[in-house]
Amino acid sequence: MKRLILTSAVFLCLNGLSFAAVDWESKGMQMVGEIVANPSAFFYDFQQDLEATTPLPPGKSFGIQTGLFPTTIPMTYLNMSGKYRLHAEGRLAPGVPQVDLIGGYWDMLAAKMATKDSKTIDSAKFGGYYMGAIVSSSVSPKIRTFWGYKHSVLAAKLKFKPGEEVDLMGTKVGSFDSGFKDDFLMAGIETPKGINKFWSMQLNYGLKTQTFSTKLSWYGKVFELGINIYPEGVLVFHPVWNMHLNF
Amino acid sequence: MKTSVWYIKKFFTVLVLVAFTLTPLSSTLSAAVAEDSKIFTPYFDMTLMEAAFMPSAGNIFSGGNINTQVGLLTKITKKDSLFGLYNFNYSGPAFQPQDSKQFTDRDMSHGFNFEYRRNLNERFRVRPGLSLMTDYSRTGANEAWKNGLYNMNSVGGQLAVDYSFDFEKNGFITATIITRKIKFPNYTDLLREFQTAGNTSETSGGLQDQSLTQFSLRPNWNGFFGGFTYTLQNYKNQEVVDNSGVYGGSKQKDTNVALDAGFRQTLWIFELSPMVSYTMHRSNQNFVRYKFLGATSANLALGNSDVTFVDKNYDYNEMTLSVPMDLNITGKWAIGGSMNITRRTYTARGARDTDNNYTSSKQKNLMSTLTGSIRKRMNDVATMRLFYSLMVASSNNKFEKYMPYNYTGNTVGVAYQLSY
Fold it and tell me: Looking at domain B3-419, which of 2.60.40, 3.30.60, 2.40.160, 2.120.10 is its CATH number?
């Protein structure tokens, strides 16, 4: 109730203030322009949503993960990720960090279906994979920092049949063939929120393309909720829902 | 005509970039408090802010800020330690003070600081250090990061001395001297290139390249702090434009003198951290305003002629006041309020009317921001804040063809912080 009152108070304060009219059409044109200018960057942001870039919980030796939203639904990214623990923290010697291998693959179902049934699309291929490693170390009973590397690859190809080009806000688009490939460094921090519940925050930075993102995640035994933020992306906020099982 | 914007941009870019250069140093100091008997002490601080901005004129836009600092303090002996810090900073589109950046400008920087710490005795400590930084800038045109006109690389050193005078109340004074060599590899004078199309000589020529020296003295005691900072910027190639409208022989030299004071205190359920600062910026650089490309004038001293010479165009005095307060209503939840005021008065530059004519009154800019927020402390190391800000920018400068001076803005955003 207290939460509701506080939130209401903030929005009531806003109510009396005058805002400039938002030109949504202009905003939409700008966003479409950004997608057309660099489609692979747009689709790669969704790949980052499904990438499993947090360390395995202490005591677990492997895990599987699949992205539910916004990857499988609505983007039809069928995907599977895995994690494998190479070394448990402190096993070889006190202070030696945990080391996990990570990786995953996705394929866009809509692209396959469109190619098969469409009268306008000649060919389409949207897919990608990633692989890497995460090193994690407890710095206090409540804090674990993690560091990682991942190699991410994406292919985004689409070709319309002759005469069936799409008109995007006045621009004829016949095809695009773009890819994305980069090596990322990751740094993050994890803190428990309850029994078998964690909260983490991480930064991913692409060395070649200088693509960067931050991931805020809340995860338990089965589900992970998150807000991924792509400050330079078309859609800055991605609410994320992933499912994982760790053994 | 457009040169005014370029000069303003390049000047403020330098200031902002220098601020980024210095940011890790203060963090280094704060991290020093966490020293204990361990050999390795990690330091991690990550803040993230994302917001929607609604200006009174123009369309809605989103922007944010990411700051990540990771460091490691290594205790070599009882008296000697090493501290390494990496700082990633991204500043996205946002409302900006007048005469600084466009709303759509973004900056991204990578900073590395290495510091050796030696305790001379119980009270004195010296901290020589090395700093490297790369900064990328990007405009609304979405050029690649590596092509930014104001991209910058800097390298330099520091020597800091800490003197503790009150162990019980954490009282200490820090004297620091830093030097930087700053280079802008992509910078070019676009107007010069345009005006002299057949010119084969190098017009980029490192016009922004400069050396920076800064001295600061900062006392701290029981949550109260203050400081005096003197900064000198010597431009390597940029010449000063004289009153005939051409570049003379002397090189540009800027100085900044800043005084600041504030405190961080908790009184009952109130958390207060007000701060006030006063800055005096002086430059030997002048300015020539062209109303249009190819404009000429017989008398450069007239404010309403097509070409006007403005002596000491960049000299100003600026006062900033920031009064943030949090009211802890429960152990987890707090209501916050904040007032920020930035007032800049140019000592020689006249304000311009809507037709780009200089008036007799000196230019004054004022930016006031009122913020209301709700903060949730998620645990010992993490907080989340939902905020709303109303910003009012006003100025007696009415020429707003390139930069807005008079507008209001609404901001709604969310911020997270995780710090260890």
Answer: 2.40.160
